[in-house]
Amino acid sequence: MTPLTTERLEIRNFSVDDAPALREIILQYQASEHAAYDHVWPTSVDEIRDVAEWFASGDAFLTVCLRASGQMIGYVALNPVEGRDHQSRGFAQVCDLGYCFNFDHHGRGYATEACQAVIGRAFDELGADRVTAGTAAANAPSCSLLARLGFRRLEERTASFRSAADGTPIEFLAYSFALDRADWIGASTPY
Ligand SMILES: CC(C)(COP(=O)(O)OP(=O)(O)OC[C@H]1O[C@@H](n2cnc3c(N)ncnc32)[C@H](O)[C@@H]1OP(=O)(O)O)[C@@H](O)C(=O)NCCC(=O)NCCS
Predict the structure, then answer these.
(1) Of 127, 45, 112, whose CA–CA distance to 82 is shortest?
(2) What would the pLDDT profile of 177-186 be if each residue is shown by its tens digit?
(3) Is the CA virtual torsion 44, 50, 56, 62 positive or negative?
(4) Is the pLDDT of residue 72 over 50?
(5) How many percent of the chain have pLDDT more than 70?
(6) What does DSSP assign to residue 2?
(7) Strand ranges across the sheet with 61-66
């Protein structure tokens, strides 16, 4: 896909050369308190190279780089899924948003800036009716990011993606969020 450019960022397709920077991000994430609420990620050099290769094979996973230096500081995922439109009872085009940023670059608005650009593409170019996202209630930075982007909370449920060392499932409260095209366009209107 054509790269997206924002004030401070370039958002482009992955390449295999992004594997070392991707690995740093995944190692940080897996060591963080929020990892307990996600699937276990592979972490070896070879495995991450395979992940980068897979990310590079399509447009769903995008690298976020600083325009000033070219440094990769995170990734945003936008996976098309088909969802049911409850109002028309037909099917709506839905994209699911995911993200992970290098922990040395948190707290500067980069995730907000990158996600805004990717969501804009989902609505303007990909014809999405709705963008969804899911996160643990305990993942405050992720919940705040979605709120900043204009998502509204839809449902909560108990989820589990991994087990403790003794095999006990790690259960947590999971929130699902959605941002509809009309709300996005409304939010973009300068009046
Ligand atoms: C979720 C995640 C991307 C959020 O990162 P973040 O740094 O909080 O988000 P942003 O980059 O948008 O930065 C926003 C913060 O920067 C501040 N900021 C500083 N300069 C800014 C600027 N120029 N523009 C906007 N915000 C700015 C904001 O005030 C905000 O701070 P606050 O959270 O204290 O209110 C990050 O925590 C992460 O990568 N986590 C690991 C992966 C993860 O948990 N993914 C979700 C799994 S479901």
Answers:
(1) 127
(2) 999 999 987 5
(3) negative
(4) yes
(5) 92
(6) P
(7) 4-5, 9-13, 61-66, 72-84, 91-101, 130-136, 172-180, 152-159
> Which among 34, 39, 142, 153 is the best mutation to test ligand 1's pocket, defined by most ligand atoms within 8 Å of the CB?
142
Ligand 1 binding pocket mutation candidate from 144, 146, 162 (most atoms within 8 A of CB): 144
Q: Which residues line ligand 1 (CB under 6 A)?
A: 29, 34, 38, 99-101, 106-112, 135, 139, 141-142, 144-145
Distance between CA atoms of 78 and 116, rounded to whole angstroms?
Answer: 12
152: its two tokens = 């509204």
Amino acid occupying residue 70 = G
Distance 25 CA to ligand 1 centre (A): 14
- Domains annotated for the chain, with CATH where assigned, are 4-188 (3.40.630.30)
